[in-house]
């Protein structure tokens, strides 16, 4: 069964939950139903896909760690230079380390071995290898998870509640 997107009272995405848990929140009056996908649990009870809490939950900001796995995931496991998708990916410093480029979300991208070697210690401009998109810090780990769920035709009704999904 598909997941349900839970929004905070402020309409910001809060987490994902099971449809059972979502139904409990609805029945207890703790949440309202915003979106359905046309399926029904009972004749007059549509299966929720997005619900919104009636009360505000304070969420502590959690820094998302700069790790190889997270960078590859942010870049959808694609080389940011040639678009190769697969598991033979390396991390490339956009401004090379030898030229003062540091380890940061804005300076590290997924690159295939070929592109990484080809680029060498040059900037993308010098190497004439433009990036697919400018690297940036991800919004949150929840955002990562949401991006995974909103692919193809799936969960299209979530889009309007989630910013920055390509
Ligand atoms: Zn490449």
Automatic annotation (TrEMBL):
Gene3D superfamilies, alphabetized = 1.10.30.50
Query: One Pfam family, short name please?
Result: HNH
Keyword Electron transport assigned: no
Asked if the Swiss-Prot or TrEMBL record annotates the protein with the keyword Nuclease, the reply is yes
Lineage top rank: taxon: Bacteria
Q: Indicate the segments forming the HNH nuclease domain, all copies.
A: 66-117
Alphabetized UniProt keyword annotations = Endonuclease, Hydrolase, Nuclease
A GO molecular function assigned to this protein is: endonuclease activity
Q: Which PANTHER family match?
A: OS07G0170200 PROTEIN (PTHR33877:SF2), SLL1193 PROTEIN (PTHR33877)
Q: What is this protein called?
A: Restriction endonuclease
Phylogenetic placement of the source organism: Bacteria, Bacillati, Cyanobacteriota, Cyanophyceae, Nodosilineales
């Amino acid at each position: 069964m598909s997941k349900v997107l839970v929004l905070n009272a402020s309409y910001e995405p809060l987490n994902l939950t099971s449809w059972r848990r979502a139904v409990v929140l609805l029945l207890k009056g703790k949440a309202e139903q915003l979106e359905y996908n046309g399926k029904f649990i009972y004749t007059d009870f549509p299966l929720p896909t997005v619900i919104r809490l009636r009360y505000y939950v304070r969420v502590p900001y959690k820094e998302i760690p700069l790790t190889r796995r997270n960078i590859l995931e942010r870049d959808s496991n694609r080389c940011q230079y040639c678009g190769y998708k697969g598991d033979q990916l390396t991390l490339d410093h956009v401004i090379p380390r030898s030229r003062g480029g540091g380890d940061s979300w804005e300076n590290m991208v997924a690159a295939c071995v070929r592109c990484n070697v080809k680029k060498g210690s040059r900037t993308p401009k010098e190497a004439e290898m433009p990036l697919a998109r400018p690297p940036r810090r991800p919004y949150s780990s929840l955002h990562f998870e949401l991006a995974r769920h909103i692919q193809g035709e799936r969960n299209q009704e979530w889009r309007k509640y989630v910013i920055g999904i390509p």
